[in-house]
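User: structure tokens for this one?
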Amino acid sequence: MQKRHDTIISGGVKILQSREAFCYSTDTLLLLDFINANYNFPPVLKIAELGSGTGGLCIAAAYQNPEARVTGIELQPKLNELARESARLNTLENIEFIDADLREIKSRLYPETFNLIAANPPYFKLGTGRVNRNSNKAQAKHEIKCTLGDVFSAAAYLLKKTGEFFLIHHYSRIFDVFAAAARYNFKLICFQPVYIDRSAIGENASHCLFAFGASYKKEPAVLAPRYIR
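Assistant:
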């Protein structure tokens, strides 16, 4: 797998990516910013990303929270190899990447392990849109290896009772997100629509950012729209 060197969040944080795999994107940065703006970081913190890909969000979270323990969970071993190499490049010792299938997570990790879980899952159901011929990229964009329900199931198993689950998804799947959240007894904390730019008056958002909690009891907040440019 050919590698290229990129940076994330600042010129000092390096990440290895490959043209043969789905690279971190604006969605990763949107989710990271959303977490930083809406999560009350505790002194003892364990973070997990479900489907961590080449590790962009995990690397950034580990860099920003040196006292935290960050775990990336990814099905594709080659992507984890890149992520581990990126961790070494940044001399991060508070991070690990696990080769694991979210659908079999109960055989790999203990329940109620993490305070914070993040996910940027495949946006599209099989049978919708064009599936990329590159299998690595196809798995990142279409629900080939895991569904939205699989992601919520893994989050429900791994999250501490007082923990929070942060998610970014395509706006067209908003009702699917709320249905999956209800199925796994998640309560909405807040959500934020994301628009490409301010000129898109009257158009639907492109994405939505969500925060859920298992034991959250307050009224959810609808945050002001986020504009990419």
